Amino acid sequence: MASADWNDVRFDYDGSLDLARRLWRLADTLDTIGAQRRQSAVEAVVQWRGRFGVEFIGRVDAELGELGRHAHDLRGAAVGWAHAWANAINLQNRRLDQIGGFLFGQDDIPPDPNPRAVPGAPHFHATGGFARY
After folding, report:
1. CA angle 76, 27, 58 (to 5 degrees)
2. Hey, is 57 helix, strand or coil?
């Protein structure tokens, strides 16, 4: 937030959603690399027989498993940042509501601000803004 008010929630709202998008894209990149590696392995294993072919398949399976786990973790982190964004903006809006209620009396302000939903993958667009009083 631009305000230096001690009551403001200190959180990089835009940066968190940008990070979520970047993490999701990186996970997509890992999935693409995994698909390419799998295709290359399928083509290569045709030439390999016996023990070396079996070892190769084991190594490829391990590598692809790791890529998949990392992609999954990256997507989980992206969703975590989206949840952090929603938690921060909703907390900020509740604080604005409390400040407005203190200054103007609870009957003089609109009802509590509607909670902002968690931005969805893969675009992670903001689902609302700050409450205005």
Report:
1. 105
2. helix
